[in-house]
């Protein structure tokens, strides 16, 4: 176990927090727990901004706890390990995603699906085992149990790795679970944003044919030329949709706004699967007859367990799957949140914590 100088001890932390539902973030001093025997402490170098951070700082889901330090796409370098840690050492490149704790005894935990554990502990804004509130990665240090630490391969840039820990696993997991990862299959990806563009990249790396489905015709060139999609459909063009009827084995729907499902169901072959990974605020209308007539399935998926998330990171490194990012300084975070609200980013913001957080302190 490494003993750190007092000024760097991981229970002293500095970050940016929201204090109320206005969502405005500002500098915040707080404490991390001392590194326990199975804990890994690391210096945060980069943290991605997820759309859920925007919801949480504004308490739009109704369970935010203030002060709130967001961030669950966290990567950095190990500075200290507990004396019972077996998988990591000082200097390792590591990350933390959406979850930092679970019961470890339920069926989901036994199946390496800690994300579906009824007692899973979110990386920020949740109550930890010791009763303290968790703080996220918009901060200089992080401490987590080694069970919830991910190893970042050397050939995967840390800034690009950050969004994989939420956006990446959110689309990788349903591709694998629903069997939409087989070479030669043809899938659709609805929405070309932070989730959608990563879904295209993973699916192509798996050898799958990909059609991007978007409300915006202006995204066609981006989808085909920059992201490598095979075809493009404008979801509001009924003629285009009719021409593609029954052409897809599955669809990954990343859209979080209210939108009709009927046109998407029509694109599926018999036995096709429509998988929702976005989270619209209002319930969507689900017509039943298209399901009956083609034995079609509508399902959902939410991030992934630790084993699968590590598998996803390793796959990304092996196949050069990297999200398109815009790296920003910590002090730019409030502007970034405003831009994110307008979908004004290609395609994920990543905060350069290591080089810019101290400058704002």
From TrEMBL:
Keyword tags: Lignin biosynthesis, Metal-binding, NADP, Oxidoreductase, Zinc
GO-annotated biological processes: lignin biosynthetic process
Alphabetical list of InterPro entries matching this protein: ADH-like_C, ADH-like_N, ADH_Zn_CS, CAD-like, ER, GroES-like_sf, NAD(P)-bd_dom_sf
Gene3D superfamilies linked to this entry: Medium-chain alcohol dehydrogenases, catalytic domain (3.90.180.10), NAD(P)-binding Rossmann-like Domain (3.40.50.720)
Organism: Hibiscus trionum (Flower of an hour)
PANTHER family for the chain: ALDEHYDE REDUCTASE
Record-given protein name: Elicitor-activated gene 3-1, CINNAMALDEHYDE AND HEXENAL REDUCTASE
Family: Belongs to the zinc-containing alcohol dehydrogenase family.
Pathway membership, UniProt: Aromatic compound metabolism; phenylpropanoid biosynthesis
Function: Oxidizes mannitol to mannose. Provides the initial step by which translocated mannitol is committed to central metabolism and, by regulating mannitol pool size, is important in regulating salt tolerance at the cellular level.
Catalysed reaction, written as an equation: (E)-cinnamyl alcohol + NADP(+) = (E)-cinnamaldehyde + NADPH + H(+); D-mannitol + NAD(+) = D-mannose + NADH + H(+)
Subunit structure: Homodimer.
Cofactors demanded by this protein: Zn(2+)
Example of a GO MF term: mannitol dehydrogenase activity
Residue span, Enoyl reductase (ER) domain: 23-351
